[in-house]
From TrEMBL:
The keyword Oxidoreductase applies. Belongs to the aldehyde dehydrogenase family. This is aldehyde dehydrogenase (NAD(+)). The keyword Cell cycle does not apply. Its EC number is 1.2.1.3. GO terms for molecular function: aldehyde dehydrogenase (NAD+) activity. It comes from Mesonia hippocampi.
Length: 517
């Protein structure tokens, strides 16, 4: 164990979460096994090996999917509020293990400890939400056009749900899907990111233990581990009616095509290119807080991270100076140390992408306002620490149109009315999150109107990241169109059935059709 790991209690956290030196990455809940290659998990915090996880083979997967399919048949017959009670018990364990899990998220993924805890808090919140939901899986009733007939709709469980999640929210995204899918009566098979395999094992450990203690059938919470080839076992599998995938637009397009080819359902949560519009009526102090947190939080690796700041020319210089000043205050370093604001990027490939983005924006005619660069020396041995950068740019630059998963913020100027800013904000292929900073009611309402933001999330006087679980989360255009977590996102995990019951002695036909025999 490294100095950091010892100082910040990583060994204790791993122990509390049941992580061993070598872990099986395949689990049906009741059984753990794995015959694939070994994946090593290195921390971007200090470059140290944290542990190893054995990947899932095709044969391993077959065992998982058969168990999940069989488990589903039993689980679906349990009343939903009773399934909610299991989720409540699972949540008790999350509350108990919040600190070690938050710490492991921070150490394995590199986000700040506070954000690691925040991520576990999102899991707790969605479980609470799901427990209430377990008594509210409502359908509608309709008035039939025929006398003596009753019509209504109901929601039934869908089956086995395949979940593919990314490294940047290695635990919360799983829970947004599973907590809902479980109360809906589905079995879940999860492939987490191969960049964060230990947090996935930790979560599965918790679920498996609670489920076993409560006699939940095997297969309701399953884990598989590996790269995209393991994900493909699920996307190609007709026994998995729904694939919920979070990650890049490139990955989403492949998954969408594969699953659509067998007429399966997808829930896609893909890339964003999120902007904050700053109008002359904005509160500049709040703008800076929202924009800096949005751009550098999680080292710019949220799909909701702020990538573009679209500032009116009247306040442009003021905002520019305030942003540059704020970036000077940023402390970059070990994310477990609560004095630091910015931790490392996930790995050296991410560092390369970051460097290329900065080179590209200059090549396209951008002007670097806050210099980037890779940090070296004591505390930065992992080679994954970079300086958050700001560049003045134009929306039509190829690099600005592209989502770079790193702390690079583009400053764009607009003039005239807020419609011009909205056009810039919407002028990208992605459509996840957006925000406007203004105290002008007309501007705010226009931004939220039909002619306003085309994103799945549109905020007024808060930044683009940090959404609460109560709302539906997701975006339009190349973001994929899926909605997860709150509101009525649960409906995607169920199949809708329309029922018509005739309680007369006749058989009248709809649309007044006569068919006498
Ligand atoms: C993601 O980056 O995949 O709104 C999810 C937020 C978080 C979730 C981000 N609640 O920033």
């Amino acid at each position: 164990m490294s100095k950091i790991a010892t100082e910040f209690g990583i060994t204790e956290a791993l122990k509390a979460l049941g992580i061993e030196e070598i872990n099986n990455g395949t689990s049906t809940g009741a059984d753990w096994f794995s015959n694939g290659e070994i994946i090593e998990s290195y921390s971007p915090v200090d470059g140290q090996l944290i542990g190893k996880v054995k990947a899932t083979t095709r044969e391993d997967y077959e065992k998982v999917i058969t168990t999940a399919s069989a488990g589903f048949k039993e689980w679906r017959t349990m009343p939903a509020p009773q399934r909610g009670e299991i989720v409540r018990k699972f949540n008790d364990e999350l509350r108990r293990l919040k600190e070690p899990l938050g710490k492991l998220v921070s150490y394995e993924m590199g986000k700040s400890y506070q954000e690691g805890l925040g991520e576990v808090q999102e899991m707790i919140d969605i479980c609470d939400f799901a427990v209430g939901l377990s008594r509210q899986l409502h359908g509608l009733t309709m008035h039939s056009e025929r006398p003596g007939h009753r019509m209504y709709e109901q929601y039934h469980p869908l089956g086995v749900v395949g979940i593919i999640s990314a490294f940047n929210f290695p635990v919360a995204v799983w829970s947004w899907n599973t907590a809902l899918a479980w109360v809906c009566g589905d079995a879940c098979v999860w492939k987490g990111s191969e960049k964060t395999p230990l947090t996935a094992v930790a979560c599965q450990n918790i679920a498996a233990r609670v489920f076993e203690e409560n006699n939940v059938p095997a297969g309701i919470s399953c884990l598989i581990t590996g790269d995209y080839t393991v994900g493909e076992f699920m996307t190609k599998d007709e026994r998995v009616p729904l694939i919920s995938a979070t990650g890049s637009t490139r990955m989403g397009k492949i998954v969408a095509k594969e699953v659509a080819g067998r007429l399966g359902k997808t829930l896609l949560e893909l890339g964003g290119n999120n902007a904050i519009i700053v109008t002359p009526d904005a509160n500049i102090k709040n703008t800076v807080i929202g924009a800096v947190f949005g751009a550098v939080g999680t080292c710019g690796q949220r799909c909701t991270s702020t990538r573009r700041l679209i500032v009116h020319e009247d306040v442009y210089d003021k905002v520019k100076t305030a942003m540059v000043d704020a970036y000077k205050q940023l402390r970059i370093g070990n994310p477990l140390d609560q004095n630091n604001h910015v931790g490392p990027l996930i790995d050296k490939d991410a560092v390369k992408n970051y460097q290329q983005a900065l080179e590209k924006v200059v090549a396209e005619g951008g002007n670097i306002l806050v210099e980037g660069g890779v940090l070296e020396g004591e505390g930065y041995e992992s080679g994954c620490y970079v300086k958050p950068a700001i560049a003045e740019a134009k929306n039509e630059f190829e690099i600005v149109q592209h989502e770079t998963f790193a702390p690079v913020l583009y400053l764009l100027k607009y003039s005239g009315s807020v419609e011009n800013a909205i056009e810039v904000q919407n002028g990208v292929r992605q459509g996840l999150s957006s925000a406007i900073m203004t105290n002008n009611l007309r501007e705010a309402e226009l931004f939220l109107s039909t002619q306003g933001s085309d994103c799945g999330i549109a905020n007024v006087n808060i930044g683009t990241s940090g959404a609460e679980i109560g709302g539906a989360f997701g975006g339009e255009k190349e973001t994929g169109g899926g909605r997860e977590s709150g509101s009525d996102a649960w409906k995607v995990y169920m199949r809708r059935q329309t029922n018509t019951i005739n309680y007369t002695t006749e058989l009248p036909l709809a649309q007044g059709i006569k068919f006498d025999l």
